[in-house]
Specification:
The complex is a heterodimer of chains A (about 350) and B (about 575).
Chain A lengths: L1 H22 L4 E6 L3 H15 L2 E6 L4 H8 L7 E4 L2 H9 L3 E2 L4 H6 L12 E13 L21 E2 L6 H14 L1 H14 L8 H9 L5 E5 H8 L5 H9 E4 L10 E9 L5 H11 L2 H11 L2 E2 L8 H4 L11 H17 L5
Parallel strand pairs in A: 1-2, 1-3, 6-7
Antiparallel strand pairs in A: 3-9, 4-9, 5-7, 5-8, 5-9, 5-10
Helix pairs in contact in A: 2-12, 6-7, 6-14, 7-14, 8-10, 9-10
Chain B lengths: L6 H5 L3 H25 L3 H43 E2 L3 H7 L8 H11 L5 H10 L15 H12 L1 H14 L1 H9 L4 H30 L2 H5 L5 H11 L3 H27 L16 E2 L2 H37 L5 H32 L1 H11 L7 H27 L6 H5 L1 H24 L3 H9 L4 H30 L2 H6 L7 H9 L8 H22 L1 H4 L13
Parallel strand pairs in B: 1-2
Helix pairs in contact in B: 2-13, 2-15, 2-16, 2-17, 3-7, 3-8, 3-10, 3-14, 5-7, 5-14, 7-14, 8-10, 9-10, 10-13, 10-19, 12-13, 14-24, 15-16, 15-19, 15-21, 17-19, 19-21, 20-21, 21-24, 23-24
Classes of the chains: A alpha/beta (about 350), B mainly alpha (about 575).
Chain lengths: ~350, ~575
């Protein structure tokens, strides 16, 4: 009796969860992404409107690579999208992607922002910028200055282990070497006004709250806050800060990218390529700029005025692949210096 | 003395052993998968972890555990005693209200307070207005993002586990001992420390161990409040270094700590026999407080409810209304509620059934089964994300096997059958929360004297009849309490659900997470409010039903005494 009850339950579970997927039988592609759902929705809606292909999205916080690897050949994933370059390279190195040749993609994306073999493609860029208290007498900044003792107790930043920061630290390692980076990290840690935790927008809020005077955050959050899209509260945070595009000594501003790749065992490869091509089209790049306040990857594509007014972006010349390789060391340095403690 | 089965039954292996063994195996499988993953790790990473990450993580984790354990025990036991032994204004309200924080997940309370207590938040703005300061730069309270802040917040949201257990015990079991002590001259004040507290030790120990396990597993609150616990280290090792082996190594180290904790708790409980043999169990008579003492009691009970529930709940309501007016309610919310409730309900039923099998097996052959029970409860100690990573290869392996068999036999591909239907999530929930239900059942069984079994057997009942007709009815409160705790835990669960759910399948917690990942927890306030609301329902029912034992004649040979 117990056994029958149990099997009835399991059958019910199977049916309840299985029916919706059984019904979706027309042209669809499956997107696995670490991109926050709210940001990707408008682009996917536009894609479906234009091509008629439905997109099923699976948002994964961590372990995207693990999930896809575990699913193996049976994985329904068509497109894999990440918001951080290191994660993208991880997918390629784990053999979870397949090369794609497309003249549309090749002409839209500059060569240094895509894989020569066609395994990964950048879709948009974001800069790691300085948020500062709006009345501070400051209009230029270099990342190296974060360790300057004059900022003692005045710096806010999110966790050093967060991918956005390990990318920045990785770039620092490529510029200055491991020993100098360790020294820099210890200096920044000594300057922290509060624990390295939270998000980028918290940096703005904490500056407004007087907990710190400067901090590091991503460029698109500035647009999100100042446009009022995040609500009235966040608009106040955005207006309490001024934003400076910092550079490395002898270099440019550190950028990270959001990118995508076609999955190795993609059931609908054609649809996947169509999605990628759509995402670098003028219409989509405009959406990236307008809806997400990012820097489009397509040269010449318009930038949102709120972002354009921050200044001209001078992208740091270090190849993204070098930064990706330095990430593990960056993460170890964060541990070694006790940055997050 | 444990009952011995008749000779004929001993020749076959009893079903309960097979059942309990299978369940233990299901729990151990992901751990084994983890062990394999850990073994594949690199030497260099392990020594790096040992040197730089583990010492601080272990130290912070132990401090956090100690602090939260002490605070939640103090609050839970103290409040339970006040509510059971005394009568004061609003006592009846506090009786159930003190359970409310159970519905609030740790990640929500952290963010709620960060927002509420932030220098630009409502509390400090009001304070500045009161004191005449203009800007936060002139006057600021210390940051909540600290170890102390984390201890306080977690203590105030996790104490209900201790409160529940202690309250049940004080209500029903303490009367005789306390009245005996009073006749022997112990004052009312001393009664708590000399009689009630020692009596409550096993219940409090069980509640406290649940609190500690919950603290160990939390990642939302400790990560956000800047406390680098072992769980947070596991997460970051796995995510940023993409090193599952390293993460698995830390996870296994965590398991060692948990096993030590559980053994300690076992040892603390071993000294006494706690089954109440009395035949005249009745509720404690309450002493009426007046004047200042009554006010103090009311306030003392009010503070945990205020801090642990009222503040976060009102914050969520305000933010949700604001959000709904600003951006409207998402269409998917209804389907997410349905998904959450279905998944949690199925997992709850399966978990309780498994826990019942394990607890029963432990009951019958106690010493031999102890190891089995310990093993079955291990799942709770493993962080959700790491457990999920252990489960993933197992489930996909099973899926592959089923698929190839289906192809062989029916020439049809079944695809990702288990992973695609949410069975993997249910598996994770069962493994994770088995300990909750098992612990409740164990405490329930502890209250049923072995002599009852003996009496039933001498009256001619088979072991099966003893189970159905003696154990189950007496276990009903424990069964229901366990089931409701498991249900609430399933609704609140986040990391394993994120990793194992089928494509396009969202629950309330994953929806909350999705929006929170942008750093705007306010957007997710509607989902959070729903999680708390759904979590409230079982709490309410639990309270209704926990009054049940008072009304039925249970252990007493005298006619049933109806109370109040």
């Amino acid at each position: 009796m117990k056994a029958r009850f149990l099997s009835a339950l399991l059958t019910a579970a199977v049916i309840v969860s299985g029916v919706p997927s059984a019904l979706a039988a027309e042209q669809t592609i499956s997107l696995y992404t670490t991109r926050e759902p709210g940001l990707i929705e408008p682009l996917l809606t536009a894609f479906t409107k234009e091509t008629g292909i439905a997109v099923k999205t699976m948002f994964v916080k961590d372990g995207l690579a693990e999930r896809v690897a575990a699913e193996g050949e049976r994985s329904p994933a068509d497109v894999l999208m990440t918001v951080d370059f290191g994660n993208l390279i991880d997918l390629v190195e784990k053999g979870l992607t397949q090369p794609v040749k497309s003249s549309v993609l090749e002409s839209a994306i500059p060569a240094n922002l895509r894989d020569p073999n066609g395994h990964w493609y950048t879709l948009s860029m974001r800069a790691r910028v300085l948020y500062a208290e709006k009345n501070l007498d400051l209009d230029k900044f270099q990342y190296e200055q974060l360790a300057d003792p004059r900022w003692k107790g005045k710096v806010c930043i999110r966790s050093g282990q967060h991918p956005y920061n390990t990318a920045l630290i990785g770039a620092y390692i490529v510029h200055h070497g491991e020993a100098a980076t360790e020294k820099w990290l210890r200096g920044v840690k000594a300057n922290l006004g509060r624990k390295a935790t939270g998000g980028d927008r918290d940096v703005a809020r904490d500056i407004m709250g007087g907990i710190c005077d400067i901090g590091i955050g991503n460029s698109y959050y500035v647009g999100l806050m100042r446009s009022g899209k995040g609500g009235a509260e966040q608009k106040k945070w955005g207006e309490a800060i001024k934003v400076i595009l910092p550079t490395f000594e002898g270099g440019g501003t550190q950028v990270n990218v959001s990118g995508a790749a076609v999955a190795r065992h993609a059931p609908n490869k054609e649809g996947a390529v169509k999605l990628l091509e759509f995402l670098v089209s003028d219409a989509a790049q405009k959406l990236y700029a307008e809806a997400n306040f990012e820097y489009p990857v397509k040269p010449g594509a318009p930038i949102h005025p709120l972002i354009a007014e921050l200044g001209t972006l001078k992208v740091d010349s270090i190849p993204l692949t070098d930064i990706a390789r330095a990430r593990k060391t960056a993460s170890q340095l964060v541990d070694k210096t006790g940055f997050d403690q | 003395m444990s009952t011995t089965a008749p000779a004929s039954a001993r020749r076959r292996v009893p079903l309960r052993w097979v059942g309990a063994g299978a369940i233990a195996l299901l729990v151990v499988a992901p751990v084994l998968a983890l062990a394999f993953a850990a073994a594949g790790g690199s030497e260099g990473l392990w020594s790096h972890l040992m040197q730089h990450v583990l010492p601080v993580a272990v130290r912070d984790t132990l401090i956090l555990l100690l602090g939260v354990g002490l605070l939640s025990t103090a609050i839970g036991t103290g409040a339970a005693w006040l509510v059971a032994a005394y009568d004061f204004p609003a006592r009846r309200i506090f009786d159930w209200a003190l359970l409310l924080p159970l519905a609030v997940p740790t990640y929500i309370i952290a963010y709620a307070y960060l927002d509420v207590l932030h220098p630009v938040g409502p509390v400090q703005s009001a304070l500045r207005a009161l004191l005449g300061y203009e800007s936060p730069r002139d006057f600021r309270l210390p940051d909540v993002r600290s170890m102390l802040g984390c201890i306080v917040l977690l203590g105030f949201v996790l104490y209900p586990y201790v409160y529940l257990a202690a309250r049940a015990l004080f209500r029903m079991q303490a009367a005789n001992f306390i009245e005996a002590a009073r006749t022997l001259g112990v004052t009312r004040g001393q009664v708590f420390f000399r009689v009630a507290l020692p009596l409550a030790r096993p219940a409090v120990a069980m509640g406290a161990s649940l609190v500690l396990l919950e603290t160990l597993n939390d990642i939302g609150a400790s990560e956000f409040l800047g406390v680098r616990t072992l769980t947070v280290s596991v997460y970051t090792t796995w995510v940023t270094r993409s090193d599952l082996a390293g993460a698995a190594q830390i996870a296994l180290a965590m398991l060692a700590i948990v096993v030590a904790l559980l053994l300690l708790e076992r040892w603390a409980r071993r000294q006494r026999r706690y089954a109440n043999e009395s035949r005249h169990l009745r509720p404690l008579a309450q002493y009426r407080l007046r004047g200042l003492k009554a006010a103090v009691a009311s306030i003392a009970c009010g503070i945990p409810v205020f801090v642990g529930f009222a503040v976060p709940a009102s914050y969520l309501i305000v933010e949700a209304i604001e959000r709904a007016q600003f951006a409207g309610i998402s269409q998917q919310l209804i389907s997410e509620v349905f998904n959450t409730v279905t998944l949690s309900a199925i997992a709850t039923v399966l978990t309780v059934l498994c826990a019942l099998m394990v607890a029963y097996a432990a009951r019958i052959a106690r010493r031999r089964m102890d190891a089995l029970t310990r093993v079955a409860s291990l799942g709770y100690a493993i962080p959700g994300a790491v457990l999920a990573t252990g489960i993933l290869p197992i489930v996909t392996g099973l899926d592959a096997a089923i698929d190839s068999t289906a192809q062989h036999l029916f020439s049809k591909s079944t695809g990702l059958l288990l992973l695609g239907t949410g069975a993997a999530v249910v598996y994770a929930y069962v493994v994770r929360f088995l300990a909750v239900s098992a612990g409740s059942l164990e405490a329930g069984y502890a209250r049923i004297s072995q002599s009852l079994d003996g009496a039933a057997r001498t009256l001619g009942a088979t072991p099966t009849a003893v189970f159905w007709r003696v154990h189950l009815p007496l276990l009903r409160p424990a069964l229901i309490a366990g089931a409701l705790l498991v249900f609430v835990d399933c609704v609140k669960e986040l990391p394993a659900t994120l990793l194992l759910r089928p494509l396009g399948f969202e629950t309330l917690s994953t929806h909350l997470y999705g929006e929170a990942a942008r750093g705007t927890y306010e957007d997710a306030s509607i989902a959070a409010l729903l999680i708390v609301a759904v979590g409230l329902i079982p709490v309410m029912i639990l309270l209704r039903l926990s009054d049940g034992p008072q009304r039925t004649a249970t252990f007493s040979a005298t006619p049933a005494e109806s109370t109040r």
